[in-house]
């Protein structure tokens, strides 16, 4: 297979540009300052560098099949689907409660629903605001601790939704522990955009955002928390997350800033009237403003098959990061605030500003027809390849990029690997998020095993997978223009039509002899709504359709996406 034009600028030194020296594995230990050497040793000891962890770039990662040999342990509680040597744990990292100014449910309400709808882990992410920063982090914690004790086979993280200075929102969450409240509260009060002076310049806000991400990394280094993660939320919704900001967040500390939502929550907002809101999936119904990045096309303000333009466009912004060799992952979630067809309302006589929460919700008997959200786990799920049922294993799996996502339970399970051609041993090859290093000229192949859905989803039908696309792109190294958002060498290189309706399918694709570094990722669909991709049919002949505001039933248009696997010369 061809990988486009030869623009290979992938020197190790260039690949590490713009990231902390401690996490740039292209710099030998002997060349680090004492403080950077100490930090690297700590990060290695904590499992945040090296095998299964995000490094400065894929060029600095100790490749081969770094995670392929890991088998799940059997001392877990909870569920998960075992496939490919991992326990795949479904989760949602973006959920609101009565401690958010625009939501209403108890922590236990969200957790019980998420658990009932098949989730193994979730993150409570109430909004940053003046009231929340003052008391919200403290007040929600007892509810989270109680939920952990009541639902022991659900991993309930505490986090918050960060108003990124000068940009959109992000999920920030930490490993549970005695300092989780302190770290989150100090972070929010120092770095939340809603608390910063309105007179700040764009440059000042961008600098503060970078400081915030570095602060989280420092809390891990100082062992205040065992782990901290950042995921940018609904990145294209208003066009204010510029490409260089995304790159800067990631490069500030790639062990903390690991990715963005591939698809936003609020998917019920697209259900047509009179049965639903009749709006836009994800509330992606905006237009450019003075704060928007001028280079983004108008089409970026809408979802495509329910997914954010940055992810859905083959050869687009996400691919531009992957083509640099940057580890940057996608997720999906509910962003659940107020749930479609629920019959409750915020508790009466609430004073959110004084109390930092609404009173417990009250039953009204009136279905919320125009609400835009689903319960956690009801529609979208982020599936993480874990080695055990634990908070640390979920965070490690997210950080390593062992993640595939889907809507509407399109498929039951997935295992994808790249290996040297002809290697037929079980669970060999490099899994999602990994790096395979082989000699130039070595033949490699992609193998994919998919469990077809045999259980009705929460809309009571069994989805049918009709096509799987293989997407590949050349890795060309760092870009000189950090506002670049295209990867011209990335395209759909193979499409598999799926005729089976039950059981499983095994697919393989010859990736050819390695002549230059590349990556490969997967996408699948029920085939109900497709059109040529935004960059043309030669790049993506059957991509997702641009969602129409007012006519975007989320159940009639289902997709899955995986994170990439890289193949690099050694």
Give an overview in words.
- The chain is an alpha+beta fold and 570 residues long.
- The chain has a domain at 81-381: TIM Barrel (Alpha-Beta Barrel).
- 20% of the residues lie in helices and 24% in strands.
- It has eleven helices and 23 strands.
- α4 (130-150) runs antiparallel to α5, α5 (180-191) runs antiparallel to α6 (202-221) and α6 packs parallel to α7 (243-252).
- The model is unreliable at 1-18, 50-55 and 62-77 (pLDDT under 50).
Contiguous uncertain segments of 5+ residues: 1-18, 50-55, 62-77
Estimated share of beta-strand residues = 15-25%
**Overall mean pLDDT score?**
90
Report the span from N to C terminus.
20 Å
CATH class of the domain at 81-381: Alpha Beta
Give the number of DSSP strands.
23
User: How many helix segments?
Assistant: 11
Which overall shape is indicated by the principal axes computed on the Cα atoms? globular
Examine the secondary-structure arrangement and name the CATH architecture of the domain at 81-381. Answer: Alpha-Beta Barrel
Share of residues in helices: 10-25%
Radius of gyration: 22 Å
Derived from helix and strand composition plus strand pairing, the structural class reads alpha+beta
């Amino acid at each position: 297979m061809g990988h486009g034009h030869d623009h290979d600028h992938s020197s190790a030194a260039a690949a590490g540009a713009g990231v902390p020296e401690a996490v740039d594995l292209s710099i030998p230990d002997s060349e680090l300052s004492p403080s950077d050497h100490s930090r690297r040793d700590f990060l290695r000891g904590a499992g945040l560098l090296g095998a299964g962890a995000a490094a400065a770039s894929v060029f600095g990662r100790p490749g081969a099949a770094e995670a392929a040999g890991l088998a799940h342990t059997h001392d877990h509680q909870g569920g998960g689907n075992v496939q490919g040597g991992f326990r795949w744990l479904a989760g949602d990292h973006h959920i609101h409660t009565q401690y958010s100014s625009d939501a209403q449910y108890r922590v236990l309400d969200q957790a019980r629903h998420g658990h009932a709808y098949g989730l193994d882990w979730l993150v409570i992410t109430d909004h940053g605001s003046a009231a929340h920063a003052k008391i919200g982090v403290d007040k929600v914690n007892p509810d989270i601790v109680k939920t952990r004790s009541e639902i022991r086979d659900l991993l309930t993280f505490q986090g918050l939704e960060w108003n990124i200075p000068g940009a959109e929102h992000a999920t920030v969450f930490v490993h549970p522990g005695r300092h989780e409240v302190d770290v989150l509260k100090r972070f929010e009060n120092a770095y939340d955009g809603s608390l910063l002076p309105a007179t700040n310049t764009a440059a000042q806000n961008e600098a503060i955002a970078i400081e915030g991400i570095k602060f989280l990394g420092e809390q891990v280094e100082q062992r205040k928390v065992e782990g901290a993660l950042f995921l940018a939320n609904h990145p294209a919704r208003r066009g204010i997350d510029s490409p260089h900001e995304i790159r800067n967040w990631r490069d500030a500390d790639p062990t903390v800033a690991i990715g963005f939502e591939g698809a936003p929550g609020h998917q019920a907002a697209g259900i047509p009237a009179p049965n639903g809101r009749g709006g836009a999936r994800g509330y992606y119904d905006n237009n450019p403003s003075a704060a928007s990045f001028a280079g983004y096309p108008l089409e970026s303000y809408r979802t495509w098959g329910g997914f954010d333009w940055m992810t859905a466009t083959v050869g687009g912004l996400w691919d531009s990061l992957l083509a640099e060799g940057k580890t940057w992952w996608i997720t999906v979630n509910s962003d659940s605030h107020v749930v479609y067809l629920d019959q409750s309302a915020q508790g009466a006589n609430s004073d959110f500003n004084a109390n930092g929460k609404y009173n417990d919700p009250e039953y009204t008997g009136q279905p919320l027809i125009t609400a835009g959200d689903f319960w956690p786990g009801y529609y979208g799920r982020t599936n993480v390849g874990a080695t055990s049922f634990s908070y640390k294993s979920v965070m490690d799996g997210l950080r390593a990029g062992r993640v595939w996502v889907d809507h509407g339970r399109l498929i039951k399970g997935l295992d994808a690997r790249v290996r040297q051609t002809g290697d037929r041993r079980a669970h060999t090859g490099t899994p999602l998020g990994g790096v395979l290093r082989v000699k130039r000229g070595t033949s490699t192949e992609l193998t994919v095993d998919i469990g077809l859905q045999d259980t009705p989803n929460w809309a009571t039908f069994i989805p049918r997978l009709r096509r799987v696309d293989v997407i590949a792109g050349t890795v060309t190294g760092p870009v000189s223009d950090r506002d670049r958002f295209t990867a011209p060498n990335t395209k759909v290189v193979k499409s598999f039509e799926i005729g089976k309706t039950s059981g499983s399918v095994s697919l393989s694709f010859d990736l050819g002899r390695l002549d230059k570094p590349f990556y490969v990722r997967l996408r699948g669909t029920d085939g109900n709504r497709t059109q040529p991709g935004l960059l043309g049919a030669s790049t993506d002949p059957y991509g997702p359709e641009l969602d129409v505001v007012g006519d975007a039933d989320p159940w009639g248009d289902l997709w899955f996406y995986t994170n990439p696997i890289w193949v690099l010369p050694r």
